[in-house]
Design brief:
The chain is mostly beta strands. It has a single domain, classed as Beta Barrel (Maltoporin, Chain A). Helix content is 4%, strand content 54%. It has a 22-stranded antiparallel barrel. Strand 30 and strand 31 form a beta hairpin. Belongs to the TonB-dependent receptor family. Its main location: membrane.
Length: 776
């Protein structure tokens, strides 16, 4: 029976950190060479070669086994098995990557190899067909995964960590996730799928591909979706649709491609919740969300006349149910030509345009009883509903962040191959801009409950109520606009000496940034502005030795950098105006081992990195320190095939720590020291024609800290996912259970709090998804 590869992974055994690290290092060093070869010749290789295009000059394809860098792949069958709740949720299948996908369908926090970040995804690029959707990995309240949705149009995901990343494309030093679109072929084929869930998800996916004319192919697909959300908002808080078309023309000496993807998708922004009141649990669980039908419409002061000044406020009615999402499009294409005398020409381009907004109720401080604020008496909501003195209340700020973004990328390369040498010259150009308005803070007292209403000003002895938002504590009102342009030249060479391949690359990049921000009491005046012109150099070099047909090793060094992006909150306030260039320097060393056979494979990568210059700001963003960090670790990506049984392993062990200042020696905030995803699956045939696969994913995540001071401990946890897939001729059925044991675990504390945190954000509760599909 044919092996139906279904799962990328999860997990591990909860053991001590040092023994776990030594186990991983030992496995990498031994290369599992003592594992017996199962039903194959010792010199045989994988029956199907994996080709990857990420991390190569111009995006030229190379066998994964021949690559001298750490890259993982997830094909469309594995994506279906994972059944991710969001794009970020799918990235958990990549070793070295820690994902907090508990915030909803978008707006995740993604961390890579211990590189320091306070949230969002400072070191993550999401690309389609080889080019970044947005050149800057993160703006406050917007990271790259927000701008992408997974559907039936995806052929595979490639995830490259470190390696040659700093030299190619947008120069990402951390993780590049490259989503490759499906292309049509000679035969017409397609799929339609209906999905529902125990939280009333209603979704239809479709895709069809085929031939338009001789050597001219198409693929079109997309989805429509709606649901109240895993954390039930009481209305269709998650709504989305997407349409993609991909056209491919095969030329006599190459290929031309053009695609367009239009997306309008958003969902509730899930935030930290109150954990206890004076040591007593609030009773709120992972199914709670504050926003509901009775409180979703709120008047919010927006930039015009600031809340801190002016005689009148510019109030805007906002639907808190909008949550976070993306309403925009990505258009791109490529031209690949094989020229005479072993010359190659490759040009790729993309254009991104749309709105990435964030709206939600953000908690401020701890929950308390109403009576503790008003002398022990009862009160009422603004609608007149009675509230008891023991009713829990909490300050929530209806935060609104509007972002209108545009970006253009072009990557052109010219390559020449000789018998034992290849040289590539490249030019990368990108331009992007943003217009944004923020109104954050603005907190008022609300009844702590789903649908909880605002508390009447007459019921509370606290000035933080009513229209006087200036008295409500921290308020941040921003009206900003910025544009940037980057030009980069790179040169890469590769030579072959027997079984050894040597490669090296250098990137010279210049970025011009203009950014103006009004965030004071006087509107119409830019309180600070940036006119920056910075140049820098990145490089990488590696040696790869495939000393057997099925076994090899590599060593790689790289040195890259991250420019500051449009970020009034973290990057440009204070430090830049005081003379800092805000450039973050990152150096990395990698040692890799590769074993690839018919029945099992193991890719093990040891890594060490150092960073210098990451801005870390206190709450409110008034002052920032410049962190230096270091991390050392091992990534394992393995598969085992035993007849109808398949086992996937995805594990990371790392020691990320701060290397300077009073916090030196502390663990970098919010990143685990070890995590493992273990996914067994078993294929059986029921009756004459029913192919069935049973699978599970078991995850173990170690302790983390919610702050760099390591005062807020986020406890380790385990998570179990279950699933079954059935194929009956062209019909397929899938039942997926996420968090089957309903584990209650935290992914973050309150990032806006100092010291001990009264709030935390839970992983998503148990949910069940059922889908019925038809392939043709």
């Amino acid at each position: 029976m044919k092996i139906n590869l279904l799962t990328r992974a999860i997990n591990q055994i909860n053991c001590q950190r040092k023994s776990y690290l030594s186990l991983a290092l030992g496995a990498a060093a031994l290369g599992l060479v003592q594992v017996p070869v199962l039903a194959q010749d010792a010199g045989s290789t994988e029956s199907v070669e994996e080709l990857i295009v990420t991390g190569t000059p111009g995006g030229a394809s190379v066998k994964r086994f021949d690559a001298s860098f750490a890259i993982s792949t997830v094909d469309d069958a594995e994506i279906k098995q994972v059944s991710p709740a969001s794009t970020a949720d799918l990235l958990k299948t990549i070793p070295g990557v820690w994902v907090e996908s508990s915030g909803g369908v978008s707006g995740a926090n993604i961390f890579v190899r211990g590189l320091p970040s306070g949230g969002d995804a400072d070191f993550v690029t999401v690309a389609i067909n080889g080019l970044a959707i947005f050149p800057a990995p993160t703006l406050s309240f917007m990271e790259n995964s927000t701008l992408f949705r997974v559907d039936e149009t995806i052929e595979r995901l490639e995830g490259l960590r470190g390696g040659p990343n700093p030299v190619y494309s947008n120069g990402q030093v951390g993780l590049t996730t490259n989503f490759i679109l499906k292309e049509g072929g000679e035969e017409t084929e397609g799929a339609v799928r209906y999905s529902t869930s125990d939280y009333d998800l209603q979704r239809i996916d479709g895709m069809v591909s085929g031939k338009l004319a001789e050597d001219f192919y198409y693929m079109i697909g997309g989805y429509v979706s709606s649901s109240p959300g895993v954390r039930d908002a009481g209305f269709n808080a998650e709504q989305g649709n997407q349409f993609t078309i991909n056209l491919t023309k095969i030329l006599d000496n190459g290929k031309a491609n053009l695609f367009h993807r239009s997306t309008d998708d958003h969902g509730t922004w899930y935030l930290p919740v109150a954990l206890d009141v004076n040591g007593v649990e609030t009773g709120l669980d992972a199914g709670y969300t504050q926003v509901g039908q009775r409180n979703r419409h709120v008047l919010v002061p927006m930039s015009g006349a600031d809340g801190n000044g002016g005689s009148a406020l510019n109030w805007e009615s906002v639907d808190m149910g909008e949550g976070r999402g993306w309403d925009g499009s990505v258009t791109g294409g490529s031209l690949e030509l094989n020229l005479a005398n072993d010359w190659t020409f490759i040009d790729r381009f993309s254009l991104t345009k749309g709105d990435a907004d964030t709206v939600g109720f953000v908690p401020q401080g701890a929950a308390v009883t109403l009576g503790s604020l008003n002398g022990g008496v009862a009160g009422e909501t603004v609608s007149g509903a009675p509230l008891a003195a023991n009713q829990l209340v909490q300050q929530f700020g209806p935060w609104v962040v509007r972002k209108d973004i545009n970006a253009f990328n072009n990557d052109l390369s010219l390559g020449k191959r000789w018998d034992d040498f290849k040289l590539t010259l490249g030019y990368y150009s990108s331009a992007w801009d943003v217009e944004e308005q923020w109104s954050i803070g603005n907190q008022k007292w609300y009844q702590l409950a789903h649908n909880g209403e605002e508390v009447s000003a007459a019921s509370i002895n606290n000035p933080c109520q009513g229209a006087d938002v200036a008295s409500c504590g921290w308020k941040y009102d921003v009206d900003a606009r910025g544009d940037a342009r980057e030009n980069a030249f790179y040169i890469a060479g590769e030579t072959y000496i027997g079984d050894v391949t040597l490669d090296a690359g250098v990137r010279l990049a210049n970025r011009k940034t203009n950014y103006a921000v009004d965030d004071s009491a006087l509107d119409g005046r830019d309180d600070f502005f940036v006119d920056a012109d910075e140049s820098n150099t990145a490089y990488t070099a590696a040696a790869n030795w495939n000393f057997r047909d099925d076994m090899g090793v590599f060593v790689r060094i790289n040195d890259g950098f991250k420019y500051p992006d449009f970020d009034a909150y973290r990057d440009f306030r204070g430090d830049f105006n005081n003379g800092s260039d805000l450039i973050i320097d990152v150096s990395q060393l990698e040692l890799g081992y590769k074993l690839s056979r018919d029945n099992y494979s193991l890719y093990a990568t040891g890594f060490s990195n150092k960073t210098k210059g990451q801005p870390f700001c206190d709450v409110g963003g008034v002052t920032c320190s410049r962190l230096e960090t270091k991390a050392v670790g091992v990534e394992l990506d393995g598969k085992l095939y035993l007849g109808d049984f398949t086992l996937d392993l995805n594990a990371t062990v790392q020691e990320p720590e701060i290397d300077n200042g009073p916090l030196a020696g502390n663990q970098v905030l919010r990143q685990p020291t070890h995590m493992m995803r273990l996914t067994p699956s078993y294929n059986i045939t029921l009756g004459n024609n029913v192919e069935t696969s049973l699978y599970a994913t078991y995850s173990v995540i170690s302790d983390r800290y919610g702050d760099n001071a390591n005062t807020n401990t986020l406890d380790s946890y385990t998570k179990l996912d279950l699933g079954v897939q059935m194929n009956i001729d062209n019909v397929n059925i899938q039942l997926a259970v996420d968090n089957a044991t309903d584990e209650l675990a935290l992914t973050e504390s309150d990032p806006r709090a100092t010291g001990a945190s009264a709030n935390g954000r839970y992983i998503l509760p148990r949910n069940v998804k059922l889908s019925l599909g038809y392939n043709f």
